[in-house]
Amino acid sequence: MVATNTSFAIPDFTLSPRIDQVGVEEKAKRFTARSIKAETKVNGLKLTLNMIDLTTLEGKDSDGKVKQLCYKAQHLHDQYPGLPTVAAVCVYPSMVGIAKKSLGNSGVKVASVSTAFPSGQAPRDVKIRDTKFAVSEGADEIDMVISRGKFLEGDYNFVFDEIAAIKEACGTARLKVILETGELVTYDKVRRASDIAMYAGADFIKTSTGKISPAATMPVTLVMLEAIRDFYYKTGKKIAMKPAGGISKSKLALHYLVMLQETLGTEWMNNEWFRFGASSLANDVLMQLEKERTGVYQSANYFSID
Amino acid sequence: MAKAKNNTLKLKFDTTYAPAPESKASAKIDAKYELFVNGKFEKPLSKKYFDTINPATEEKLSEVADANVADVDKAVKAARTAYDKTWSKIPAKERAKYIYRIARMIQERAREFAVIETLDGGKPIRESRDVDIPLVANHFFYYAGWADKLSYAYPNKKIEPLGVAGQIIPWNFPLLMAAWKIAPALATGNTVVLKPAETTSLTALKLAEIIQESDLPPGVVNIITGAGATGAAIVNHPDINKVAFTGSTDVGKIIQRAVAGTNKKVTLELGGKAANIIFDDAPLDQAVEGIINGIFFNQGHVCCAGSRLFVQESVYDSVLRKLKDRLETLIVGDPMDKNTDIGAINSKEQLGNINKYLKIGEKEGLEMYQSSCELPKKGFFMRPTLFTNVAQSSRLAQEEIFGPVLTIQTFRTDDEVIEKANNTPFGLSAGVWTDKGSKIFNLTTKLRAGVIWANTYNKFDPTSPFGGYKESGYGREGGLHGLGAYLK
């Protein structure tokens, strides 16, 4: 007889914990009341840079554009000595090869969106091929989207099986599962989708594609961090988190770090376990770092816009 | 191909955040404070003063006058004269204007009030800035609105104020309690003699400065400072028409004895030992936050604190683990630091009281858990504390501790928890956490408590009445109900 209480038993997702909207929004707001100064601020800003998935996901992306982005990923602002690189460069599958070549041994990962990003409206075999292609081109990480339509229909098994199938197609690449929380709307559904993704094999759970508004918000991210914590309590397995879209200012990024620290703790405070999906955040962080270093703000013209 | 570099940066970013102290520059504290009687600051007839200290550093902040019986008499006479000559005569809309003016002046000087409240009382600046002072202003605004609309509150009734109100307030929310007392009394046309607690007189005296600047007719509000004897002199003064007291149940009983046989009206807002009830279908992460806000808000110096936690057995382990993890992220220390969650215990005496209960808990064989945070070397501080394995018969579950100490009990059924929650001499407040609406209504009709929060805790609003059942006192403050306590 199988023990019903083993930690890896797949739960009934309709019983995922309920979220109180007022409570979670109030709690998220409380993190923003922390005042981050001096050394803590500089550390937070550097960590933020190091956690960025520098992203370009446009129809007009070209080899040249991706090459430039990859250079920026390794040379954020050479005027400031000792800066870290970003965590990864995030591109479409067709751009993975050129990104991989450009990044070489820098340690910056190549992340590829897949599974008919951003809508996910394609048959499963197409999604699997999309994923396998990205991996074969050298992607270290795959950012998949869930089938939101199926999820909202209540077909949780479909969503679960699809994630599991993509995970298998990933091989050793780490899988980020994008919930597209802006289309799920309620916190209850965000929580349920997070649980499905983690039990189905996600290495990361990620809020948004960046193509739908609202993208990442602090309360949505908090709901997902709490899901990660509960999963860790139950299974001992750590899952990483990636809020994406809408985080373009340093101050907001620091609020996210406070939320991460006070929800999951020090072990999650690095780019193995937390990422920012962002394209314009880096320059604002650089501007703040220069302000901390020199005492004055510099013009935006001093920071490259790749 | 060479092995790729490791690009994972590790830097210190934890809850030992770099200090972020609030500036003291906005707070002007005089070396000495006199009594505020008849619109003027006057030396006490007693000729005596006592020190008020900062509980976070044990340093002296100022000296405050110690009013004796003669000083109280002088203040009551001033209030009587003001009542007879001006305040009961002027049109209600004129009263409203004064109250609005006081509210606006408090808002203008909110930063200064917040800083002094924190320096004198020990509560974190985050709370005095974001909770206490905004609520104070809102309370004055709210009752200013009522002043000329009392006939709508009580249609077909002759609206008559009581006369002179003697008001005695505690040290846990010094300025907020002053607002709760003064605003409705003025709106209904009464005059006031108010005594703040001896450890936290400063913000009330700053309020006196505002009242003076607002040109409120002299004697309408008199603020006199002192300890228990001063309070007793107010209660026993024959020309007081109304006693409003917020504080301990023991003192409340003394007041009730003292006014027996007189025609003084009384409202008492006394102690509490609230049940905070977590059902297994509750949104647990938010409930844990509610537990934290329920018991550690203002160092647990809250009469309606959720000090008795009841958790349904099926989620007990999960709630306890989450609670312990959350406890670790609470920052205890300098109340003036913007990141501090738990500030200083209000006085050495109160710290002693709380520690006495920890010893009792130990003796009773309860399991104690405290967060591992470092405490400052000076000042009166205490780690947030949980007790598990607590029986209903434990003294810790029965008596009001008034500190950051939570007792945790489990329950199985709804009826069981209702019975246990009501099994206390107090009845001020309670909390219910469940996703099920019908359960909320079932509980709220059966719990014997004046204030019940559902899926939240420690939320205050001037429009909402506040007050207790049983030994938590009687009468209501706030909202429409709060007006009735100051009308014949």
Amount of beta strand of chain A: 5-15%
Specify Rg of chain A, calculated over alpha carbons: 19 Å
Strand content of chain B: 15-25%
Second CATH tier, the architecture of the largest domain in chain B: 3-Layer(aba) Sandwich
List key phrases describing it.
heterodimer; A: 306 residues; alpha/beta; TIM Barrel; eight-stranded parallel sheet; 8 strands; B: 488 residues; Aldehyde Dehydrogenase, Chain A, domain 1; Aldehyde Dehydrogenase, Chain A, domain 2; seven-stranded mixed sheet; six-stranded mixed sheet; 16 helices
Give a structural overview.
The complex is a heterodimer of chains A (306) and B (488). Chain A has 306 residues and is an alpha/beta fold. Chain A has one domain: Alpha-Beta Barrel (TIM Barrel), CATH 3.20.20. Helices cover 47% and strands 10% of the residues of chain A. Chain A has 12 helices and 8 strands. Chain A has helices spanning 21-31, 38-50, 63-74, 96-103, 124-136, 148-153, 156-170, 181-184, 187-200, 218-235, 250-264, 281-294; strands spanning 52-55, 88-91, 109-113, 141-145, 174-178, 204-206, 240-242, 276-278. In chain A, helix 7 packs across helix 9. The mean pLDDT of chain A is 95. By secondary structure, chain B is an alpha/beta fold. Chain B folds into 2 domains: 32-270 and 471-484, Aldehyde Dehydrogenase, Chain A, domain 1, CATH 3.40.605; 275-462, Aldehyde Dehydrogenase, Chain A, domain 2. Chain B contains 16 helices and 18 strands. In chain B, the strands form 4 sheets. In chain B, strands 13-14-15-12-11-16-17 form a 7-stranded mixed sheet, sandwiched between helices. In chain B, helix 2 runs antiparallel to helix 4 and helix 4 (125-146) packs parallel to helix 6 (174-187). The N and C termini of chain B lie far apart (91 Å). The model of chain B has no long low-confidence stretch (mean pLDDT 97). The chains are: A alpha/beta (306), B alpha/beta (488). The A-B interface holds A 17-20, 22-24, 26-27, 33-41, 43-44, 46-47, 50, 84-85, 87, 105-108, 226, 233, 257, 261-262, 266, 269-272 and B 1-15, 17-20, 126, 130, 281-287, 289-290, 318, 321, 329, 338-339, 435, 455-456.
